[in-house]
Amino acid sequence: MKRREFLLNSTFLTAGYSIVGALPGIARTALAPLDTDLYKLFKDPLPVYRPFVRWWWNGDKVEKDELIRELRLMHAAGIGGVEINPIKFPARTDDMGKPSLQWLSNEWNDLLLATFKEAESLGMTCDLIVGSGWPFGAEYLQGEERSDVVVIGVKKLEGPLYYETSMFDLFKEADPAISSPFPGRTLEMMELKLVPEPLGDLSQVKDLKAQVKDDIIKLDIPKGKYALYGLVKIKGFMEVINGAPGANGPVLNHYNKTAVNKYLNHMTDTIQNRIGPLSRHVRALFTDSMELEGANWSSDMMDEFKKRRGYDLYPYLPFVLLKIASMGNTYNFTYGATLTPEFADMIQRMRYDFELTKAEILEDSFIKTYVAWCKKNNVKSRAQAYGRGYFLLEGSFEFDLPECETWLKYGIGYKMPEDTPLLGRAYTMINKYVSSAAHLKGKRYISAEELTNTDMVFNDSLEMLKVAGDQSTISGVTHPIFHGFNYTPPDAPFPGWIRYGGFYNEKNTWWPYFRHFTDYKARISALLQQGDMFADIAVLPPTADMWGQYSAQNEPFPFIIHPPYQPLIWEAIHKNGNACDHVSESVIRDATFKNGFMHYGPRKYHTLFLIEVLSMEPATLQKLLEFVAAGGRVFCIEKYPEKATGWKDAVQRDQQVKALVAKLQSYPDKFILLKKPEKDFIGWYKEVQEEYQIKPYVKIVKPEPFVTQVRYQAGDTEILLFTNSHMDDGYTMDITVSKELMGKREGWIWNPDNGERYYLNGVNGSYTLDLGPSDSRLLVFDKTKKGKPAAPFPSGEGVKIAGAWKATFKHIDGTVKEVALDELKDLATVETLQHFTGTITYRNNLPVTDKTDAIWLNLGKVHGVSEVTINGKSLGVQWYGRRIYNIASDVKTGDNTIEVKITTNMGNYMKTLTDNKVAQYWTNELRKNQPIQPLGMIGPVSVMSAKTKQ
What does the alpha-carbon distance between residue 464 and residue 467 come to, in Å, rounded to a whole number? Predict the structure, then answer.
């Protein structure tokens, strides 16, 4: 054994977790060596691989004893770390008279230190959010330190007309309906223009600013159609969303490097002057959602634009800007004056240039400054670096721990439509960008704000959490940070202090079983963080075209997806046994090409898909020419590139694009135009795969919309993870693993539920996978030779248990009810039972004629967590998918007593608490008005014999 391997195995893996707890947080991301025993690491994951939680310090109404109690509660539930996140106290909630601490006050810092020490004693990792809420800011920010935005207000007019208006009316028209306006914002009219329609040249625009007197403007509008434009700067326009006391107020101007440095240093200086270096206690400092709500301005913005793009944008700015509303999303694309086609093309190119410039300044002023600040303080940088104004891919390049988001929404587990590609997906649009960015930079740790829930609070079953979490993993995530755990005293009025949903709380009915889920997630993370996600296909979305037409869109939920089918491409690739990364033009330009592959950092791709890319830099196309000349292949979906990005020298650069495309077309077998399908992108990609011999690493005979896969490589070990995202339907799939992947390895099933492993039965790399509802299958191919085969699995319907059931209903309010059920049914359809929450214990007699033929008990469909007892012996807990229990050693010939305990969700009951403002807000109000959910054991319950189904 190598000395390094021996020392690490003996010290970290066998000496216990007390050593882990004693290490500073920054060290905990690198405990497991690559050459250690992967299976050992998987079976018994170190705490650093366990899920973390976002820990909301609601209103900073925190006390030492309660902080310690909650840390111990989370630790016992299998949580490996916390992201300390002070936030505004939730409305409609009884604070029990507890005072709020001021962010960064001595009292607050002292409790921060006490938290760090307790976490370290438990072997838990701590991250700390910068500021509070999002985007961060503070009450003390002044002047240009505050976030600014320049917007337009437009009045459509038709002459001849005498028109009189006030500056107030134009300010009101321009003031965007963002979600969190700062009360102290001020508005300044930068320009006032009268514009004819259609507008074809700036010489047609009339400057009216000099005509304003006493904030009134009077105009004689000639015959024709016109638009009155006001270009308005709003200073300090946005307030921190849900900031805690001391960290609320105006948002920081992220385009102002001096202000960014001042803000960041103020935070760390204040904390460290009180408690010492944060690096002793903190793994990472964290930046939450970068929802800047359209912020686009700093005092040097136009100077920087001219320096970077080579022309003056300011005269065109009123026409470049689009109307913005909530979250800074652009909308109403006919809001301003109608433009001639030639002028519209010029403006779109300038709009792209403006978005590019903002992203560059944000990268220089904020991202690089933030990363350098973290390094100076010897902690990791972790951030959700996306939103309007960010590079979708490169925005995550710099950070040590890039993060994306995975949400719970209605439709998850039941829908996966193509016409609305955000529905039924827990992963957001940004996930594939963030994970791809990490892969391109050789990073194995990709975190996610995971299981964010604002729509279905109290109805998120453990099974749903698994389905959503599996989807997150498929999108490239290797470590979840659950959203989240609310600081709430145990004696707080029911259900407690809830800033956001995801009711991770000891008062949740399923909390006693939560450890099953965290164990599952920990094993997945522990394994995948040791490897690299495989991908040999690259996908280039049309970001430049989107920016030019619609401006940058707000991630993770873009107001517009361009083109609408964009996410279906990477999904179809994975569902057909290949895998891909997103790339960008800059990645392509920085790549090298050899033997048919495009190389960038540790990644290499033999195929590139362009998704309706019309605008492209000539330098990028020159690189694509090198790629195809080296043997690579480019598929253009729907259209070939046809023009250059940006405005400067557009005519000359457009000609270069056309010439380069013509050269690429001289490689007809390497530069190929594909038509997108009207429907069935999975089938479409399979046809492309077969026609152009894109070799999958795992051939899937019949791909299913709800089943997908991802491949990881860890040293000489190959890993395939298959997941089924349907909560009702199972799928049987025939697959063949490629010879390259299989090699001389043995196939194994590693079970993340319990850490066991079994032989994978098959012939010449061909296997049949039987995926139940909400199921997943982790296939590992390595050099291990010895082990046990998987137990035979039942098939068929079995023999239904006859007779009525007796049921005991133990409500969480303490009441108990006995009910006789003539038949099993969805109890949500029974008016007197549909609002129940708690545990239901079903009892029945199980007559067995021949015990050797009674091997399995199948509960059928269950809504909730199930536990089975046969003749007084517990057969364990099942919390998702098929509820099938092996009863072979526990039944006897003759009568058997069977008890099935079902623990339900809480949502149906919470809807009935009409006097509870918190319960009503999360279950009955507006878009949170949740429908009654299915309830209990629906069955049919049956006994099955031993018939093997592979």
Answer: 5
